[in-house]
Amino acid sequence: MTAALALHPMERLNLGISAGALAVSLAVASPAFSGSLALGVALEAVNFRALRVSSARLFSGEIQGGRAWSLLFAMRLVMLLGSMGIALAAGAHPIGLLIGVSTIVPAALLGAWLMRPPVDPSAPCLTTDDPSWELYSVWRAGDRAPEREEEA
Known about the structure:
elongated, mainly alpha
């Protein structure tokens, strides 16, 4: 398989979830709903692949400058919105189209959980009774000022 046709594991997971949603819709919904869902899945798959590839190029330094990337990102979203508008004007079922475009959400959540880095058991950490825990803020992910004890 060539590099251009290779799918990232997140894309494969997304297509699997999308195929499951399409199979369920074919079994329980109307053909118009299923067709709209399939169109939404196709639009979402193309958009997600473009986003993943362009983000990887931006973070690797292959694309210089965030302005060009942001402009391409905005153009892609405008094209997605235009495609959805054309589909709705042509008679696509709005809920089916919405569900199809939204299949990336469960795929991203499940993929982030499944593809998380392994836990390193030898990583340095504080013991549970270390007083430094009192100086750490989980809400700001950093140290906080020690609380002064009030004098009575």
